[in-house]
Amino acid sequence: MRPPQKVFIAGATGYMGCRVAAELVRRGHTVSALARQGSESKLPNGCRAVIGNALDGSSFARSIGDADSFVQLVGVAHPSPSKARQFREIDQKSFEESLKAAVENRVRHFVYVSVAHPAPAMHAYIEVRSHCEELLKKSGLNATILRPWYVLGPGHYWPYALKPLYWFARQIPSTRDGAIRLGLVTLQQMVAALVNSIESPAQGIRIVGVPEIAAAGS
Beta-carbon neighbour count of residue 195 at 10 Å? Predict the structure, then answer.
């Protein structure tokens, strides 16, 4: 286990964020978590609640302090092609505000969950996440960018039915790369990959794709 670190999480009350925060606390790290007024009770025990608005960096920038890592997990729940406007107004805006606050505080390492691409679907979602990746690369911060496609977990099990199709696609040379890049990962694997990214900070820009995410939880 790595030495304890100070971690600031935007999105710690969400589906993935609450599990990442809880695991970091369990492993002895100091976790500060951004939460809206009234939702701080959703944070795992042991987190320091920072009351603020993810769409307004000035509401939480002063609370970041000397964080070793900033983890950006804010995003629209259950992404779908019909939510293009929300991706821009929530996912992109929250990222821009978080990145600005992290740069102002000279955060040592920024962790961002993007999405696997290229892909034949979810074009608006990919466009926003790719735009955020580019901003992060230009920021000068050390960063880890994780690129899952679909995360299997509670309430998100239906893609298990697609596993035979994924296996078949991996056997065909023309579809093998896409099947691997857009493979399925579990919530447990994502949490493990995020924790690994925080405990082993990148120097420069590190991209973590589906195969690496899957390996983290094995």
Answer: 21
Is the pLDDT score of 158 beyond 80?
no
Packing angle between helix 173-181 and helix 163-171, nearest 10 degrees? Answer: 130
Token code pair at residue 109: 């390492």
What are 180-216's pLDDT values in tens digits? 899 999 999 999 999 999 999 999 999 999 999 999 9
CATH number of 6-151+184-216: 3.40.50.720
Averaged pLDDT for residues 44-51: 96
E strand or H helix at 187: helix 187-199
Provide mean pLDDT across the span 66-88.
Answer: 95
Cis omega (within 30 of 0) on the bond before 211?
Answer: no
Residue 144's pLDDT is 98
d(CA 30, CA 47) in angstroms, rounded, equals: 7
Residue 111, token pair as written in the block: 């962790």
**CA angle (123, 129, 134) in 5-degree steps:** 120
Return the pLDDT at 9.
98
Cα–Cα–Cα angle for 82, 19, 164, nearest 5°? 60
111 pairs with which residues across the strands? Answer: 71, 144
Q: How far apart are CA 201 and CA 64, in angstroms?
A: 17
Entry pTM? 0.94
Say how far apart CA 46 and CA 24 lie, in whole Å.
Answer: 10
